[in-house]
Give the backbone structure.
Amino acid sequence: MSLDRVNDKVFSDRMMGEGVTLQFEESQIVSPYNGIITMIDKLKYTISIKKNELGILFQNGLNMFMLDGQGFMILATENE
């Protein structure tokens, strides 16, 4: 789905830069490449991964902060 169709102006207006949206069929999500986890937010739905100069900010869903971290299990740690 195009970012233009995302119901969140931060993403649809590209305030965080270009990006993609994905819809997963499985409940486990893995990194698209081997990098270093540079940040996991306290509510567990945003993770930053970096390799060389390429950084990816992964946000799992919209309005996920409302879950207050419930329903997420992180299987890695920062700097891993």
User: Anything to note?
Assistant: Helices lie at 9-12. The radius of gyration is 13 Å. Residues 3-63 form one domain.
